[in-house]
Specification:
Layout lengths: L6 H15 L31 E5 L3 H12 L4 H13 L20 E8 L4 E9 L4 H11 L4 E3 H10 L10 H13 L24 H6 L9 E6 L5 E7 L20 E4 L3 E7 L1 H6 L2 H10 L4 H16 L16 E7 L4 E7 L3 E5 L5 E4 L1 E4 L3
Parallel strand pairs: 3-4, 10-13
Antiparallel strand pairs: 1-5, 1-11, 2-3, 2-6, 5-6, 7-8, 8-9, 9-10, 11-12
Helix pairs in contact: 2-3, 3-4, 9-10
Length: 374
């Protein structure tokens, strides 16, 4: 069953909550119940009136659980999503964000993040910030304490220090070793030996297996964590945080800190975010486009698929980004939650999952997709 809803009727049903939300500050709590029962289609969940809903990328099961927990405790949605993604930022085993994130080509971890608060329609972001574990928290400070939206580079680092954030080395031993492997593989005309050319492991314990040699030629990480949430009152917020493309050119900024690309929230409609190839999310204004598709009447999954279709159609002009069948050779994943609590996610190429907690527990679900796996 479709969960398509007429835009005018939808806005009338939630207009009262939207008006109340406009007066909410960053310490406000839940404002009351609003919403309609929505039947779930592919990748779209059902939700009864008055329930919180949080959606995230697949690495965000703990994130959505924490966001829902904090909102139920009366915490503002912007604070809840920032606290939620902070779990991944502090996890050295999640190599896509924060501590242990994969570095740029010089071996330096550079982080990007953005936060957007639906009730005030205000955003904050940081880009290319170094030595600060929680860039999402710094982005929140930009939103709360400044008239700016984005602060970058060393200015962002100094801004964080001024607000009490501690500097630390974010490159773990594991990600340092991966960076060194990448350096050895990046050129076949230098004097660095790749692991497949070596006859023993670098630590000398035993010879490399063929599987280990193959594993050394790994795909560059483009991982991120996004989280969007809606409260029982219909207030929205979103956050996206990342260490960006692994081994990127220093100073490269992807979509995550760019409002409208990796994150966009409209308190009258919904919130959306992106992970994957950031350049395409930027060039398609991905998150904003998803929200506008929802504003036009599409359910969250339909909105994500519609934007992915536009990306796929336009990217064919760049031959290096398509395969022999004219399909994109990269993945892009979009996530969305609507003001009434309906949610959905879609990826360019099948096989991805997303995390969600709609009051029935945090879990992973499969993304809808535009193209079947090769």
């Amino acid at each position: 069953m479709s969960n398509h809803i007429d835009r005018r009727g939808f806005l009338v049903s939630v207009g009262a909550a939207a008006g109340a939300a406009a007066t909410a500050g960053l310490t406000g709590g839940a404002l009351g119940a609003v919403g309609q029962s929505q039947a779930g289609g592919a990748g779209v969940g059902a939700r009864r009136a008055g329930r919180v809903c949080a959606i995230s990328s697949a690495n965000g099961v703990q994130t959505v659980a924490k966001a829902v927990e904090r909102i139920r405790a009366g915490v503002d949605p912007a604070l809840a999503v920032v606290e939620g993604v902070g779990i991944a930022e502090a996890d050295p085993n999640d190599k896509t964000v924060g501590l242990g994130g994969r570095p740029n080509e010089l071996g330096i971890v550079e982080l990007d993040a953005s936060v957007m608060h639906g009730p005030t329609h205000k955003a904050g972001s940081v880009a290319s910030i170094q030595n600060i574990m929680h860039p999402a928290q710094v982005a929140l400070k930009v939103l709360q304490y400044t008239d700016h939206v984005m602060i970058v580079g060393d200015g962002a680092r100094k801004f964080a220090i001024a607000h009490g954030f501690k500097e630390e080395d974010l490159l773990t031993e594991e990600t340092r070793q991966e960076w060194m492997r990448w350096r050895r593989h990046r050129s076949d005309i230098d004097d660095w030996l790749t692991d497949s050319q070596m006859d023993w492991k670098p630590d000398g314990t035993r010879p490399l297996t063929n599987a280990e040699k193959r594993a050394e030629i790994e795909e560059r990480s483009a991982g991120t964590i996004h989280c969007s949430v809606v409260t029982p009152a219909g207030d929205l917020a979103g956050c996206t945080t990342t260490s960006g493309l692994a081994y990127k050119i220093p100073g490269r900024v992807g979509d995550s800190p760019i409002i409208g690309a990796g994150l966009f929230t409209d308190n009258e409609v919904g919130s959306a975010g992106a992970t994957g190839r950031g350049e395409e999310a930027i060039q398609s204004c991905g998150a904003h486009s998803v929200v506008m598709e929802m504003a036009g009447g599409k359910d969250p999954t339909e909105a994500c698929l519609a934007v992915l279709k536009k990306v796929a159609d336009r990217v064919r002009r760049q031959r290096r980004l398509v395969d022999e069948r004219g399909r994109p050779n990269f993945n892009l994943v979009l996530y969305a939650v609507r003001k009434d609590g309906a949610y959905g996610s879609a990826c360019m190429i099948e096989g991805r999952e997303f995390a969600v907690d709609d009051g029935n527990g945090a879990r992973r679900e499969k993304c809808a997709f535009l193209f079947e796996a090769r």
